[in-house]
Design brief:
Number of helices of chain A: 17
CATH class of one domain in chain A: Alpha Beta
CATH class of chain B: Alpha Beta
Structural class of chain A: alpha+beta
Largest sheet of chain A: 7 strands, mixed
Number of strands of chain A: 19
Oligomer: heterodimer
Distance between the termini of chain B: 14 Å
CATH architecture of one domain in chain A: Alpha-Beta Complex
Structural class of chain B: alpha+beta
Strand content of chain B: 15-25%
Shape of chain A: globular
CATH architecture of chain B: 2-Layer Sandwich
Largest interface: A-B, 55 and 36 residues
Order of helices and strands of chain B: EHEEHE
Radius of gyration of chain A: 23 Å
Number of helices of chain B: 2
Helix content of chain B: 10-25%
Radius of gyration of chain B: 15 Å
Shape of chain B: elongated
Chain lengths: 569, 80
């Protein structure tokens, strides 16, 4: 196909992994057990340095040896008010300890108890929950990434950095590759693959939690455009952050005694949940903050004075970026463990792609790994992402590897299709128009005020704004250079994700897990123990409902976490 | 946010440009030194400061830009 080569650089591979973060590396390494050629493509830096996991503390959820998996699964089901694939949770927990052993084999360290067993801290006030603690404090994610990258290099995994993927290529309904461009030299790439694994993380709308700033949601758009199903769109996950600096590891500060207080020093969370107080899921903290603020009571502070000295020491950043930042804070007279600091809420990285439990989407040849595969109705607990990225990455690599066995040849790619995609990709380049940063801020202003306290009126209003952005603002935006061209594409993904979140939020006329409707504040198990599934058919958005298959599940009843909160007082 | 690349110290080795997740940094082809090309996209990850062999990069813990508040009511005290 000489013509194809005239359009851009053509690279052939068995398995193409889009995204070089934790799950992408797990997926690539796992796929190498089955196939010779595995290529990772990432819009960011070289192997080992891409994605949000690098900046995390490296804390990981796992089922402690000898513990009953059912108890751990049941506590997570309660956290999500029952809206869970129970068998998937069990599958994740059952292999979780092995991933800790894998990481230790790569030289990654975890905090230990005096007797040499690994130390863990239960999350969100749950009884059966174990988040193991990355070591050194504040740099565990870096060590995990570099360990996985060493393994990938040993296995001969290939890597293409700074290439932004704009479209998946389909042939006869199957995904057979992807196209994109280098954000520095503009080179167009045509990546021909027998199968594609999406491992791009979620969408943070570039909120205040800066670890997630590279999470533009492009993988959600790629999956959606290819025909994959999305779900749990109405369940956005909120995060809590300091307003004046960055922080990693609040997930341990709360169970170790840190509390949220208002200006007067009152622990306002006690009013909303006498049982959990501040040690609860962040979405409930964000909701309490929003309600307090609406009544004029803000700002909010995190007070660590109740923590034991040994715990403060354990949580003091020891290495990497957190340690450098901590040193600066002390130099500036900011002492996070000694004086209360102002905190607020922000969207975390959210994703909504659905797959089966072997990570297959409904689109042949398209697999999904990492946090891009949604599991939770918005709730979160420390270490869960790193646990899921390891599980899903390995499973996706294995499934994609097996899929390749049935595809002996690379598909022939339609040259005209590639030509059209290329033309569309570069259309905004050099165009005079609205700056992508301006579009981003407009989007944030439209949706941030309606993500926590939702009602029909504010959701509809935000949806109208987002539709205007999609139909009028985005087409008028310009990209003076390649960097901004990639950014504009990413913001296009964000706009799509925002629209889908708002539409699904309008549909769910109840409150459950992270989804809170002021006009429907109660949980409605009779009508809403079901998922809203969305996908694109013949270019049109379509929704369907999928009931939670309780008849086939092990756990018929559960406690509901949200029963421990009252937001109506 | 990144505040400065000291051009007297910068040797143009390109490590910071290579490692930046957000593509904030580029090499100036005229003088061979790194510069801040897209300040607004800095995620305050400190990777450039940590990786610079010459200590030429300064990053401050103060965030570059504060997104619109998700919690505080409009017109109220922002989180900046």
């Amino acid at each position: 196909m000489a013509n194809l080569e005239e359009l851009g650089e053509v690279i052939k591979t068995d398995v193409l992994v889009i995204g070089g973060g934790l799950s992408g590396l797990w997926a690539a390494n796992s796929a190498r057990d089955f196939v010779e050629n595995v290529l990772i493509v990432d819009k960011g830096p070289p192997m080992g340095y891409a994605g949000e996991g690098y900046f995390s503390g490296g804390n990981i959820q796992a089922l402690p040896p000898g513990e009953d998996v059912d108890e751990y699964v049941k506590d997570v089901i309660s956290l999500g008010d029952g809206l869970y694939e129970q068998d998937l949770l069990e599958k994740i927990f059952k292999q979780s300890w092995d991933r800790i052993e894998d990481f230790r084999g790569m030289g990654v360290e975890f905090e230990e108890e005096e007797d040499g067993t690994l130390k863990y801290i239960a999350q969100r006030g749950l009884k059966h929950n174990a988040c193991y603690i990355g070591k050194p404090s504040g740099a565990g994610g870096r060590d995990m990434m570099l360990g996985l990258a060493r393994e990938a290099k040993r296995l001969g995994v290939k890597y293409l950095s700074r290439v932004y993927i704009t479209d998946l290529i389909k042939q006869d309904d199957a995904v057979v590759g992807a196209v994109g461009f280098n954000i520095r030299d503009g080179q167009f790439y045509i990546l021909k693959a027998k199968t594609v694994i999406l491992a791009t993380g979620g969408c943070s709308f570039r909120g205040g939690y800066e670890d997630t700033h590279m999470c533009y949601g492009e993988g959600i758009e790629l999956a959606f455009n290819a025909g994959a199903e999305l779900f749990n769109l109405e369940f956005v996950t909120m995060w809590i952050i300091p307003t004046k600096f960055r922080w990693e590891g609040v997930t341990f500060l709360l169970p170790l005694g840190a509390v949220f207080v208002n200006e007067q020093g009152d622990s306002f969370m006690e009013k909303y949940s006498p049982i959990f107080k501040s040690n609860c899921d962040y979405n409930f903290i964000a909701r309490a903050m929003a309600i307090e603020a609406k009544q004029g009571r803000y700002p909010f502070y995190l007070d660590c004075s109740g923590m034991k000295p040994a715990d403060k020491e354990l949580m003091t950043p020891a290495e990497g970026w957190t340690a450098l930042m901590y040193k600066q804070l002390l130099e500036a007279g900011i002492r996070p463990f000694e004086e209360r600091q102002e905190w607020t809420a922000t969207p975390w990285t959210n994703s909504f792609v659905h797959s089966d439990h072997e990570m297959r989407t409904i689109v042949p040849g398209l697999f999904v790994a990492g946090v891009l595969r949604n599991v939770d109705p918005g709730i979160y607990f420390g270490g869960w992402s790193i646990c899921k990225t390891a599980a899903f990455g390995r499973w996706a690599g294995e499934s994609a590897g097996n899929y390749v066995k049935s595809r002996s040849m690379l598909a022939k790619i339609n040259e005209r299709q590639i030509r059209e995609l290329k033309q569309a990709t570069y259309t905004p380049l050099g165009k005079i128009g609205i700056d992508p940063e301006e579009v981003l801020r407009e989007l944030q202003s439209a949706i941030f005020p309606v993500l926590i306290l939702k009602n029909e009126e504010n959701l509809s209003r935000a949806l109208k704004k987002v539709e205007v952005m999609k139909n009028e603002t985005l087409p008028r935006a310009g990209a003076p250079d390649l960097h901004r061209l990639a950014k504009l594409k990413g913001i296009g993904s964000m706009v799509l994700v925002a629209e889908l979140i708002l539409r699904a939020s309008l549909m769910r006329t109840e409150s459950r897990a992270s989804h809170y409707r002021e006009d429907y504040p109660d949980r409605d198990d009779k009508n809403w123990l079901k998922w809203i599934m969305a996908n694109q058919r013949d270019g049109k958005l379509s929704f369907r409902f999928e009931p939670v298959p309780l008849a086939k599940y092990k756990h018929k009843t559960w406690r509901c976490y949200s029963d421990n909160f009252n937001f109506l007082k | 946010m990144i505040t400065e690349i000291n051009s007297a110290k910068c040797t143009g080795c390109g490590i910071c440009v290579d490692l930046c997740n957000m593509d904030v940094l580029r090499l100036d082809t005229s003088n061979g030194k790194a510069y801040i090309a897209y300040h607004e996209d800095c995620m305050t990850c400190f990777e450039c400061a940590l990786s610079c062999p010459e200590g030429a990069v300064e990053v401050s813990f103060v965030p570059e830009f504060t997104p619109p508040s998700i919690v505080f009511p409009q017109g109220g005290k922002n989180n900046g």
